[in-house]
Specification:
- It contains 7 helices and 32 strands.
- The chain has 484 residues and is mainly beta.
- It has 2 domains: 84 residues, no CATH class; 381 residues, 7 Propeller (Methylamine Dehydrogenase, Chain H).
- It has a 5-stranded antiparallel beta sheet with strand order 12-13-14-15-19, with no helix packed on it. Strands 25, 26, 27, 28 and 29 form a 5-stranded antiparallel beta sheet that branches.
- Helix 6 crosses helix 7.
């Protein structure tokens, strides 16, 4: 204990005495409920607490808590091989990354590398790769190529990590048409990934893979027959939701339970009326040009020859927007990687009034009235933004990520840059709502930009076409602990 603390210990009572003189085990347990910034703040109070904040279990737990809150695939971090300093650095990285983005309108990456994949039979050139999908956490990358193959790569969890030259797992081509990865989500047990693909025509496949197992492989869980090419697809931990634009049909498939599904026609204003689809619990919200509708998923029944049986269904509610535009709204939905309870918020951008309207989904007690929906989206506030941020002109706006002070979202600007928007919700130290933007990638003479971004790792993956053809870049904004 500090020398000056010895003379003052007799004056300490209650919480102060506990923190200054309490048992190491008790102080460690208290820190299991604190965020990394608060743990770090305790370190500078006295030597007794400083030692307690350096316990390995404290930072293992802190990293896990931050990873869950950020919607990170937990096996991304090899915790057993990480030092205490590495654990601390990883747990604090999201906070430090946000601070960088908020300080500058344009952020320079720490390191940019080319992704040059190799296979047992030779190199796999970037021109063969159709799409790249970064698993949240930044360590694992899924690519699909023109040969109809899917590959899972381990590119290391930070710039100091080892990037394996060969894929961790391969899903060989079995069809004449190459598969397309619709999206990836965490498995039910947090150690696996669900990978949804389609064959560009009539089927959606669900595969499961354990990336850190001894012999990772793609195992097919099920197949759904539908018009997958012209569809909008989302998912939850239980359901895959597919909206077929041409048929105006909504399909709900319980992919982990073989052979269960349901479908219904979304009768509204026209075949191009639906803008976005969102699933929460056992409800689907469809966003249309003039309003959004809340549907309660009916009981699922066995698939018929792989097709979901069709039922007649009407929405439980139809809700109006704050402002209506003939092109429809720009909807900001939560990341499907977030914990289910954290997916209860979404936003709607209105360029006409320069406002992001935020909604929160509230539970409804239906014990007295069974016809009521069990959830209700409530307008919880609005965030103004500048005239320069016209979201209708963005080519691609990605889901909302949760931060300590609000949300983070990325998009491609009309100039072709990749930008980050940090949406700040009112706090005692931030009395007004605002959106802070920062450009994180700018390359002239490039087109057909496809990207993925992980706020936890501060890692950006970009596939684009330049003067020398297609190229895949790994762009890191956070240095490893050894570089600090």
């Amino acid at each position: 204990m500090d020398a000056d603390m010895d003379g003052k210990s007799s004056f300490l009572t209650g919480v102060g005495k506990l923190l200054a003189e309490g048992p190491f085990e008790l102080l460690t347990h208290i820190q299991l409920f604190l965020n990394p910034v608060d743990i770090l703040a305790l370190r500078f109070t006295c030597k007794h607490l400083s030692g307690a904040t350096r316990s390995r279990i404290v930072w293992v737990n802190a990293l896990r808590n931050v990873s869950i809150a950020q919607g990170v695939f937990l096996p991304s971090f090899p915790v057993e091989q990480m030092s205490n300093d590495d654990l601390e650095h990883a747990a604090l990285s999201p906070r430090r990354l946000l601070a960088r983005f908020q300080k500058a309108a344009r952020v320079t990456p720490f390191l940019t590398r080319l992704f040059t994949p190799h296979l047992q039979g030779g190199d796999l050139g970037p021109n063969l790769i159709l799409a790249v999908d970064l698993v949240p956490g930044g360590r694992f990358l899924v690519t699909s190529n023109r040969k109809g193959e899917l590959h899972l790569w381990d590119i290391g969890y930070n710039t100091g990590g080892h990037m394996k030259s060969l894929p961790v797992a391969t899903l060989a081509a079995s069809e004449a048409r190459p598969p397309r990865v619709d999206h990836i989500r965490p498995g039910s047990n947090s150690d696996s990934l669900y990978v949804f693909t389609n064959d560009w025509h009539s089927r959606i496949f669900c595969y499961e893979i354990y990336p850190t197992s001894e012999n990772p492989c793609f195992s097919r869980l099920g197949t759904l027959w539908c018009d997958a090419y012209d569809s909008q697809i989302t998912s939850s931990k239980d359901y895959l939701v597919c909206y077929q634009n041409a048929r105006r049909t909504l399909i709900v498939w319980k992919y982990a339970a073989k052979g269960l599904g349901v479908s219904w026609v979304v009768s509204h204003h026209g075949p191009d009326d639906l803008c976005e689809v969102f699933i929460f619990d056992k409800n689907v919200i469809t966003f249309h040009t003039t309003d959004f509708c809340l549907w309660t998923i009916p009981d699922l029944t066995p698939l018929i020859n792989g097709h979901a049986p069709s039922f007649e269904l009407e929405p439980k509610l139809r809700l109006a927007y704050l402002s209506v535009d003939e092109q429809g709204p720009k909807v900001a939905l939560p990341s499907r990687w977030l914990p289910e309870l954290a997916q209860n918020q979404f936003g709607v951008y209105y360029d006409e009034i320069l406002t992001l309207a935020l909604y929160q989904i509230k539970s409804v007690d239906t014990s007295q009235e069974s016809d009521l929906p069990n959830i209700l989206p409530i307008h919880s506030g609005s965030v103004p933004y500048r005239q320069s941020l016209v979201y209708r002109d963005t080519d691609d706006a990605w889901p909302l990520h949760i931060t300590e002070d609000g949300f983070l979202q990325t998009w491609i600007t009309r100039e072709g840059d990749i930008a980050v928007g940090i949406i700040l919700i009112p706090r005692p130290n931030i009395p007004t709502q605002s959106i802070v933007t920062s450009s994180i990638w700018e390359e002239s003479n490039r087109s057909h930009v496809h990207y993925d971004f992980c706020p936890m790792a501060g890692r950006l993956i970009v596939r684009s076409f330049g003067l020398n053809g297609p190229e895949i870049q790994i762009v890191d904004f956070m240095p490893p602990r050894s570089s600090l």
